[in-house]
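Tokens in:
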């Protein structure tokens, strides 16, 4: 079941200002602040949405939010811009009513973002399909293009729209978009040539310079440096949070999606570049012989590049900047332009060129997004236009902008009252006239065809003779002096004696939003918007196809001597067309408010917002809405919301909804003058009545909640008791079953024990009988055995006694024989016994020594220095000789396993030992490292194929070394390639040979005694290789490199042996200067690495970390 919600539920502050009680400007601002502090940025005034710019991202625009507000009643959920967009879209789709959404507010209030949100919501909720999606994408992608060319950074807004935009989106009968039409109003083209301090020119200039490729900029003859262009301000060239390069790519992609051809895009970029080039054209004064002043171009390079871009002859455009031709009937008069007039002509051409380009872009987008079918369409218009502007210095632009806002306020009041009146008539409620301020008198002051300010401005522009801004002001003082909304220092309404805020060159108009002071300087020039005919004709002569379209009046065959319409006349006509268009549609309003001037979140500046509330006329809007009935609601939701307040309607009302509401209001005793019954709605006059109903509903909901809690707790306790009772029965049944099972198990176990005891007793009885029988048998056998043993032992003793007697006789006989022999040979035995015993002992010792040596021989490794210890001192010489013979034999066996390549490596290792052992601290760490030679695999790596082919001979070593720069001591990676005839140094990245030194030109190599990898290749003085001086290099394989260079010199017969100098200080020849390289030990830095620093022009100091 769907839960019914309302705007009044969980309300922070008051969601609809119509219900604000009491109503005052302070309570209005307090309510806005309360909602803003809780991130509630939307508030209603009836059907009008107030939008506060939060200056941060809020999680209220997700796809889930879109679905939440889709097909929901306007007041059903909390205020949101999606609610207004959905209401407008459903009215268009279901009721066939054309809609328009008017978005107003000052710069930085979020108008552009609001229009994007409306369009994105409509795109999300309308139909799907390939063609529909294409149309939606084109409509959405038109925004980045127009923003790039029509938006700029101002002091109030980083993405301020500097033009008014009205887009008609066309839908078919199903509500699917078919296309659209865009209208633009009053582009601020003066920004092209001049920007206020802290502001930028239009975005597209900065996006082009930041995001275009180098090739594109070269074709457009542009540089990336913004400071090179006079039309671009430098103080705000870079905006925090604005990526111009990424935005340029977005614009290019958007133009492609909208339907721009590549040649059209290039033409547009060429015109943008031409505007930048125009700003760099400067003039110098020059006097003619007749005494008149004329202007000449200082530097013609920018003019030349601009003419090349646009295909214009340089002489034609140069003359157009220097001369002006005035045609009157059949006469032509050519006059020279002074420097000021030339600059005016240049800026006028730049403004017209950019303005016409922008108009062409809008027309081209309309061609792409317009509906293809010719049947009648439903239309939704979105108006994003400047808000009311009150600056310190207000000029012509602010005057016509505020005029447009006066017209919008007029139509807003008219349409709001008409909507109210139509609803009252539709519901059958008596309409009473509402008192309100009608600003038609202000609109008439500005737009009256005879005495209006715009009409007098046009009249002054067309009047012959001397016409200035001061004469225009004089005419205003004459014609408008009696008008109650016009003031100047000479008018009747101004308080001249006390009001010193009115300078002589200003006038003041009392607008609906307050008084605005206008300075008349520039009114005439800006209204004339004059472009000399010579420049138009010069532009038309261009070979650029787009330029011819932008300047059709330059066609000599269609010369029109009529003066072009003024800017004020054109704007008044376009505003009139817009008003007629809006009056045919059902209006929807979004009022955007800027919370602070710092563009920062969570800051609510009350004075600034109070000012905007006044000039937006929001209080007037609330009063108009509250003049009749403040709140209205259809009977069904009203009854659904408040039915619990009456026993007769609660919980269900069986009759019609209106009858239920009538019963409800009668039961609540609400005074009859506080409400009225319409045909489908109830109208409540005072918000206090609504809040009374809400308070009663809140109390009733608390009572109902208490009742529901009571019933729920009783049900919960009963359910719990029944569950416990049921559980007790189940537990008892299971326990009884368990007890019986346990009893049965005990009986069964006892029976088993009794049975086992009985069977055990029977078994043991049988066992005793069997054991007794067995013991009787064993006893008889044992007695017999003992008897036989006794007999045998007696016989054995007899035999032993007999044998002892025989042995004793033999022993006595032997002793006797031995005594006789010893007596006979005693003299011979004593003469040789010592020598025989010695020889026998020595022989036994030697045998034991050799056997022990065989069992304890060391391993076959030549570097194994272990040898068994000698056991006897007299074997010391033999022990050492055997150790030497074994080592020689072991080395011979080890050498027999070597290949020729391995022998060569060991020979290099041996030579390295002779050169560096006990001389270089780096040598011990290199002994265990094999000499690999080709570390880069130069013959296999395709990256070095070209380098390998460039070296004719066999490469003995390929490694990356660092070539030390004398200037700063830093290294540059080089590939080091020694051969039998030369040493080659090549670039590591490209493989290009940087230096090739023949070995005869190499005289010596210098290295330090420490653990660094630095070495210097010293060249023969006067040789061709020594022009740039010696080479100071650094390598991780220094020992191997020096050894190979030394071997190459040793094997060559046609040159001297290479000298190797090992010292901590040596001289290196750099071109014409000799530099001392000094090696010192220092504390470890940068990961224990060696560092080289330049101390002066004659000393490079290499700091080597001290080794433990």
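Residues out:
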């Amino acid at each position: 079941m769907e839960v019914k919600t309302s705007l009044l539920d969980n309300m922070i502050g008051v969601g609809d200002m119509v219900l604000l009680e009491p109503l005052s400007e302070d309570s209005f601002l307090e309510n806005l602040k309360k909602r803003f502090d809780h991130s509630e940025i939307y508030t209603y005034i009836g059907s009008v949405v107030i939008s506060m710019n939060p200056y941060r991202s809020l999680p209220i625009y997700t796809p889930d939010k879109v679905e939440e507000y889709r097909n929901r009643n306007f007041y059903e959920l909390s205020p949101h811009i999606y609610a207004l967009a959905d209401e407008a879209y459903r009215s268009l789709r279901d009721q066939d009513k054309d809609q328009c959404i008017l978005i107003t507010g000052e710069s930085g209030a979020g108008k552009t973002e609001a229009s994007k949100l409306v369009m994105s919501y409509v795109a999300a909720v309308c139909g799907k399909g390939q063609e529909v999606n294409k149309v939606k994408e084109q409509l959405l992608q038109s925004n980045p293009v127009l923003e790039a060319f029509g938006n700029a950074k101002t002091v109030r807004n980083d993405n301020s729209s500097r033009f008014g935009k009205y887009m008609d989106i066309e839908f078919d009968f199903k509500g699917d978009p078919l296309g659209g039409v865009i209208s633009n109003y009053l582009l601020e083209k003066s920004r092209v040539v001049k920007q206020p301090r802290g502001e930028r020119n239009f975005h597209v200039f900065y996006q082009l310079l930041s995001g275009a490729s180098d090739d594109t900029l070269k074709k457009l003859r542009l540089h990336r440096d913004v400071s090179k262009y006079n039309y671009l301000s430098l103080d705000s060239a870079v905006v925090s949070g604005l990526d111009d390069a990424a935005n340029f790519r977005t614009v290019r992609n958007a133009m492609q999606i909208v339907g721009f051809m590549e040649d059209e895009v290039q033409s547009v970029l060429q015109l943008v570049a031409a505007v930048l080039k125009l700003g760099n054209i400067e003039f110098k004064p020059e006097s003619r012989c007749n005494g008149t002043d004329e202007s000449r171009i200082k530097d013609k390079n920018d003019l030349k590049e601009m003419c090349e871009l646009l295909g214009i002859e340089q002489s034609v455009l140069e003359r157009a900047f220097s001369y002006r031709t005035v045609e009157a009937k059949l006469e032509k008069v050519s006059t020279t332009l002074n420097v000021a007039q030339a600059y005016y002509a240049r800026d006028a051409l730049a403004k017209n060129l950019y303005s016409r380009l922008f108009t062409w872009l809008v027309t081209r987008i309309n061609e792409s997004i317009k509906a293809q079918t010719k049947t009648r369409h439903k239309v939704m218009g979105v108006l994003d236009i400047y808000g009311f502007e009150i600056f310190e210095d207000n000029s012509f632009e602010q005057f016509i902008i505020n005029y447009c806002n006066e017209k919008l306020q007029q139509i807003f009041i008219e349409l709001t009252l008409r909507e109210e009146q139509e609803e009252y008539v539709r519901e059958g409620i008596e309409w009473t006239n509402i008192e309100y301020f009608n600003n038609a008198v202000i609109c008439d002051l500005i737009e009256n065809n005879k005495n209006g300010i715009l009409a007098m401005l046009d009249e002054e522009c067309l009047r012959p003779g001397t016409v200035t801004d001061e004469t225009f002001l004089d005419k205003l003082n004459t014609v408008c002096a009696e008008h109650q909304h016009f003031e100047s220092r000479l008018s009747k309404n101004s308080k001249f004696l006390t009001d010193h805020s009115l300078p002589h060159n200003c006038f003041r108009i009392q607008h609906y939003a307050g008084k605005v002071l206008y300075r008349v300087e520039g009114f005439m020039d800006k209204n004339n918007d004059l472009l000399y005919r010579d420049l138009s004709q010069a532009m038309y002569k261009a070979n650029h196809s787009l330029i011819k379209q932008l300047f059709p009046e330059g066609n000599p065959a269609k010369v029109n001597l009529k003066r072009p319409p003024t800017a004020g006349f054109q704007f008044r006509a376009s505003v009139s067309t817009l008003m007629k268009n809006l009056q045919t549609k059902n209006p929807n309003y979004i009022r955007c408010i800027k919370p602070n001037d710092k563009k920062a979140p969570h800051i609510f500046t009350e004075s600034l917002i109070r000012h905007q509330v006044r000039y937006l006329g929001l209080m007037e809007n609330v009063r108009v809405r509250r003049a009749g009935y403040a709140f209205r609601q259809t009977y069904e939701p009203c009854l659904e919301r408040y039915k619990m307040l009456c026993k007769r309607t609660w919980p269900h009302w069986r009759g019609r909804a209106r009858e239920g509401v009538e019963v409800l209001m009668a039961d609540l005793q609400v005074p009859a003058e506080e409400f009225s019954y319409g045909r489908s709605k109830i109208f409540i006059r005072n918000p206090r009545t609504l809040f009374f109903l809400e308070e009663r509903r809140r109390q009733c909901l608390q009572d109902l909640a208490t009742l529901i809690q009571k019933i729920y707790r009783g049900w919960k306790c009963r359910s719990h008791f029944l569950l416990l009772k049921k559980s007790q029965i189940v537990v008892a049944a299971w326990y009884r079953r368990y007890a019986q099972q346990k009893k049965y198990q005990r009986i069964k176990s006892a029976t088993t024990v009794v049975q086992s005891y009985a069977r055990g007793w029977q078994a043991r009885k049988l066992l005793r009988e069997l054991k007794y029988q067995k013991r009787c048998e064993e006893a008889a056998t044992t007695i017999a055995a003992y008897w036989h043993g006794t007999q045998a032992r007696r016989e054995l003793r007899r035999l032993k006694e007999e044998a002892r007697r025989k042995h004793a006789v033999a022993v006595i006989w032997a002793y006797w024989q031995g005594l006789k022999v010893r007596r006979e040979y005693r003299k011979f035995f004593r003469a040789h016994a010592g020598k025989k015993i010695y020889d026998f002992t020595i022989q036994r010792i030697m045998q034991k020594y050799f056997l022990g040596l065989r069992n304890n021989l060391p391993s076959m490794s030549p570097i194994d220095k272990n040898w068994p210890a000698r056991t006897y001192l007299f074997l010391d010489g033999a022990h050492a000789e055997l150790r030497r013979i074994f080592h020689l034999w072991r080395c011979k066996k080890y050498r027999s396993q070597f290949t020729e390549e391995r022998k060569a490596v060991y020979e290099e290792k041996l030579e390295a030992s002779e050169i560096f052992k006990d001389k270089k601290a780096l040598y011990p760490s290199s002994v265990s490292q094999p000499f690999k030679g080709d570390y880069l695999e130069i013959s296999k790596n395709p990256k070095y194929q070209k380098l390998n082919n460039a070296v004719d001979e066999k490469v003995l070593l390929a490694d990356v070394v660092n070539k030390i720069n004398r200037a700063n001591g830093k290294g540059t990676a080089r590939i080091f390639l020694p051969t039998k005839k030369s040493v080659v140094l090549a670039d590591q990245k490209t493989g290009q040979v940087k230096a090739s030194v023949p070995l005869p030109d190499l005289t010596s190599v210098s290295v330090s005694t420490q653990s660094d990898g630095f070495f210097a290749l010293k060249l023969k003085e006067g040789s061709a290789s020594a022009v740039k001086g010696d080479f100071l290099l650094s390598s991780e394989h220094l020992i191997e490199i020096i050894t190979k260079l030394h071997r190459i010199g040793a094997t060559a017969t046609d040159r001297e042996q290479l000298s190797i100098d090992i010292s901590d200080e040596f001289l290196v020849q750099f071109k014409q200067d000799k530099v001392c390289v000094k090696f010192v030990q220092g504390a470890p830095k940068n990961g224990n690495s060696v560092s080289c620093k330049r101390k002066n022009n004659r000393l490079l100091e290499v700091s080597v970390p001290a080794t433990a």
